[in-house]
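Weekly sync, protein design subgroup
Attendees: M.S., D.O., the rotation student, P.L. (late)

Item 1: inverse folding check
M.S. brought a backbone from last month's batch and wanted to see whether the design step gives back something sensible before we order anything. D.O. pointed out we never logged the input encoding, so this time it goes straight into the notes. Structure tokens as presented (120 positions):
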């Protein structure tokens, strides 16, 4: 059974930092791309960051570049999203995803999400 369990969300003031974690089970990092999507109130889901199988390709959305860092711990089967210099527009539910292959298409497995609230 595939499980993706996010944690680390919360409330923070603008300029602050949060580190999201995703505990992954039932898929292997060698042949899946693991990513983070988010959905803000009233908006569509958007891809934030993705790390491909074997860490060969890393993607960041324009809004995440320079502020967010994705990383993996293969031994712990975890994926992290370090978010710095947070802005109110980063407020959203953040989801961890796993897709077979090298791209985060959001068509595979999803976690239930963790809420991030950034106040001005």
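Designed sequence read out in the meeting:
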């Amino acid at each position: 059974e595939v499980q993706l369990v996010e944690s680390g969300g919360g409330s923070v003031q603008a300029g602050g930092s949060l580190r999201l974690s995703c505990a992954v089970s039932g898929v292997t990092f060698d042949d899946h791309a693991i990513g983070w999507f988010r959905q803000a109130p009233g908006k569509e889901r958007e891809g934030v960051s993705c790390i491909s199988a074997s860490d060969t390709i890393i993607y960041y959305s324009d809004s995440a570049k320079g502020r967010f860092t994705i990383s993996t711990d293969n031994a712990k089967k975890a994926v992290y999203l370090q978010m710095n210099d947070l802005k109110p527009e980063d407020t959203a539910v953040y989801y961890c995803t796993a897709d077979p292959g090298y791209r985060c298409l959001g068509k595979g497995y999803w976690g239930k999400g963790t809420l991030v609230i950034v106040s001005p």
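Discussion: The chain has a mean pLDDT of 94. The radius of gyration is 13 Å.
Action: P.L. to compare against the previous round before Friday.
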